[in-house]
Specification:
By secondary structure, the protein is an alpha+beta fold. The protein has two domains: about 30 residues; about 100 residues, Quinohemoprotein amine dehydrogenase alpha subunit, domain 2 (Lipocalin, Beta Barrel). It contains two helices and nine strands, in the order H-H-E-E-E-E-E-E-E-E-E.
Length: about 140
């Protein structure tokens, strides 16, 4: 069996030329600006409607510390979340943030939100299957 180099024999100058082309292509790809993740930092007030409970207002504080996002639910109007409850499983991809937080009854609420300037819009889903629309507006 022949070595790859024996099957693909090129003069040295062509190998150098092709290597230069490859380096140039990689450099161009690396230089293309990437979309930075949206800055979700701040205090947000979210409004939604919960089945069997009615209107609910959450106050959420999000922070970016180095390469990590952190946050907590400071307060809610129906007392279904303990004050200053840390949010968990935070993932940010471009202008979308997802996270979860526990409720006082031990179940979990998940949020999937899209950043739109001074607003975040999306939906929440409860671990028991309920779902609804939620809109957060930036307070500061």
């Amino acid at each position: 069996m022949k070595k790859l180099d024996e099957n693909f024999h090129l003069p040295v100058w062509k190998k150098i030329f092709l290597s230069g082309i490859l380096i140039a292509m990689v450099s161009i790809v690396m230089a293309v600006p990437r979309a930075d993740a949206a800055d979700f930092s701040g205090t947000w007030m979210g409004k939604t409607n919960l089945p069997h409970f009615g209107p609910e207002v959450f106050t959420l504080v999000l922070k970016k510390e180095k390469d990590a996002n952190t946050g907590m639910v400071v307060v809610d109007s129906l007392d279904i979340v303990k004050p200053d409850t840390p949010i968990q499983n935070i993932e940010v991809e471009g202008d979308v943030i997802t996270f979860t937080f526990p409720l006082v009854d031990g179940t979990t609420l998940s949020c999937h939100l899209t950043f739109e300037g001074e607003k975040m819009k999306g939906y929440w889903s409860h671990s028991a299957g309920a779902r609804g629309i939620i809109v957060f507006e930036k307070k500061e």
